[in-house]
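Work through this:
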Amino acid sequence: DTGPTGPTGDTGPTGPTGPTGAPGEGAIIPFASGTPVTLTGLAGNLVGTVAEIGFGFNVPGLTLIGGSLDLAGLTNLAFTMPRDGTLTDLNVYLRVTAALALLADINFTVQVYQSTAPDEIFTPVPGAAVSIVLPGNLIVGQIFSASASFNVPVTEGTRLLLVASATSLLAVTLEGSISAGLAIS
């Protein structure tokens, strides 16, 4: 016969710490224009008006000044980095919502912009962009996508947003719905 179980003994010493695990994949920040966006380009591959792409919302008709975007008094769709990190990948999707017949290709670009001060002035993050060369003849519903990988450090407190633009040798008005995903590790 087995007798009754005795009292539980004292807890033993803590074992050694295990090895550090592999770093996580990071975060993916989703962007979507919500409604279609209108982008304009001036003849000679010059940017006309751009759009700020947010989280199911967009702000079209913005003008760059010296390559910078001043959001003072405007709708702000930027998010703030809660810690230091690295921008690693950007994937962009465009669905054309208005037909176009242009005798020149169109350069469609989605660029990450930053405000490091922080203030309301945003500047392009060098190398953190996706560009797609579109044919001049576009039909409604046509879809384009592309991605880019990069390794761009950003610091805690930096504010980030996406800006979409279109340029061509000829004046252009590009209309479409835009979505994107930005990976940060």
Notes: The radius of gyration is 24 Å. The chain is about 0% helix and 55% strand. The chain has a mean pLDDT of 94.
